């Protein structure tokens, strides 16, 4: 399965040399930024509050948004057009920073749980008689 079919199944296939006209890309940029903000906020809230949050589906949604943003940005060549969306981009940057912090906290918690399980399994399997640690071979 290709990455496109997994994450962009409902997006039109990109054709060679086809770009959006600058006016259309400029008009869509605000809407795209809003969709990205919604996706990032939903993921941040989900990671913080839902025990079985579907991170794979959230990543697919963010990938689609990034694809749309990249297509829209190709059509924008003027800095003044981007300055019109400056506030939205700054809001998005703050939301992305909060999202990154939530993801880091989630990964840290997962790592801690994995280490606890690993240690519990090692302790349960070994009575200490023939463990490598007892002979000095594997000290942490």
Task: Describe the fold and architecture.
With 140 residues, the chain is mostly helical. It is built from 5 helices and no strands. The chain has helices at residues 3-7, 22-49, 55-74, 79-84, 86-125. Helix 2 (22-49) runs antiparallel to helix 3 and helix 2 runs parallel beside helix 5. The longest helix has 40 residues, at 86-125. The two termini are 42 Å apart. 6% of the residues are buried. The model is unreliable at 1-17 (pLDDT under 50).
Structural class computed from helices and strand pairing: mainly alpha
Overall spatial form: elongated
Biggest sheet: strands, sense, closure? none
The radius of gyration over CA amounts to 23 Å
Total number of strands:
0
> What percent of the residues sit in helical stretches (DSSP H or I)?
over 70%
Ranges with pLDDT <50 over ≥5 residues? 1-17
Beta-strand content estimate: under 5%
In angstroms, what separates the terminal alpha carbons? 42 Å
| H and E string | HHHHH
Helix count, DSSP H or I runs of 4 or more residues = 5
Average pLDDT, all residues: 78
Helices and strands in order, then pairings?
Layout: H1 3-7, H2 22-49, H3 55-74, H4 79-84, H5 86-125
Helix pairs in contact: 2-3, 2-5
Describe the structure concisely:
The chain is mainly alpha-helical. It has 5 helices and no strands.
Key words describing this protein structure:
mainly alpha, elongated, disordered N terminus
């Amino acid at each position: 399965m290709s990455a496109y079919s997994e994450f962009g199944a409902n997006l039109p296939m990109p054709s060679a040399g086809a770009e959006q006209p600058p006016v259309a890309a400029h008009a869509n940029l605000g809407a795209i930024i809003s969709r990205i903000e919604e996706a990032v906020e939903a993921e941040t809230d989900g990671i913080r509050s839902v025990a079985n949050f579907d991170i794979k589906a959230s990543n697919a949604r963010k990938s689609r948004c990034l694809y749309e943003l990249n297509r829209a940005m190709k059509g924008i060549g003027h800095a003044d057009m981007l300055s019109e969306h400056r506030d939205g981009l700054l809001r998005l940057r703050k939301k992305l920073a909060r999202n990154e912090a939530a993801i880091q906290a989630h990964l840290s918690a997962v790592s801690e749980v994995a280490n606890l399980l690993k240690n519990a399994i090692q302790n349960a399997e070994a009575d200490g008689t023939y463990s490598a640690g007892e002979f000095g071979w594997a000290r942490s």
